[in-house]
Amino acid sequence: MSIDGRRRGVCLVVGAGPGVGASVARAFAKEGLAVCLTRRPRNLAELETLADEIRADGGEAHAFGVDAREEAEMIALVDRIEAEIGPLEAVVFNIGANVWFPIVETTTRVYTKVWEMAALSGFIAGREAARVMSPRGRGTILFTGATASVRGRAEFSAFSGAKHALRALAQSMARELGPKGIHVAHVICDGSIDGTFTRERLGDVDERLAADSILKPDEIARNYVWLHNQGRSAWTFEMDLRPWSEPW
């Protein structure tokens, strides 16, 4: 509860896994928002650990095991947050779905699954955020993009297709919702990000971190909070984040 008697605003992080999602959740909690964290039900124990860490630091956190691809689950989640925790002031869609396969080995099952995770889920989360934010005339909806949002690399056809779709969704929503007082932004994380996926693929992550040549989740999260706090006379739609040494 805030000092003026209103319920504390809420930040919902869809895809609050280790890395960017966890850092974004911690950053918004430090900003004074109650944070609601979602991952699939099988990851709920890890999510509860993150929520405990945020609460130990003085923040408010709630963990939910939700499949963001399931429309009914997301509708129920947003309704529950609004009724029991507080009004959604920020929604961050952060599901990654990064996979790579040669095109001839990319099955329709893989392509569809990646699209569901990175594009369909983004649509559902964005729509539900807009549903509750529009009547209030305020709110922030942030989508995590990637290099694949603008450049399709070899062997990343499914990921590139889904991330392109997510970017197009964000563009459309920004044009529709901006005049209604809702800030929609798309953040391109152009480069490797410290996290489980990167550490499984690269053997020199610690060296790259020391040289600032890899994206640090906490630095990414700082930019998300900055976007949320922007004045509406100069809103950013798209932000491109890359290490200083990353080639263009």
Category by helix and strand content: alpha/beta
Total strand segments: 7
- In what order do the strands lie side by side in the largest sheet? 3-2-1-4-5-6-7
Overall domain count: 1
Low-confidence stretches: 1-6
Gyration radius over CA:
17 Å
Look at the structure and name the CATH superfamily: NAD(P)-binding Rossmann-like Domain
What is the N-to-C succession of helices and strands?
Answer: EHEHEHEHEHEHHHE
CATH topology: Rossmann fold
Count of discrete alpha- or pi-helical segments spanning 4 or more residues: 8
CATH architecture: 3-Layer(aba) Sandwich
Strand percentage lies at: 15-25%
**Net shape:** globular
Distance from first to last alpha carbon? 45 Å
CATH class: Alpha Beta
Helix percent reads: 40-55%
Distinctive features:
single chain, 248 residues, alpha/beta, Rossmann fold, seven-stranded parallel beta sheet, 8 helices, 7 strands, 44% helix, disordered N terminus
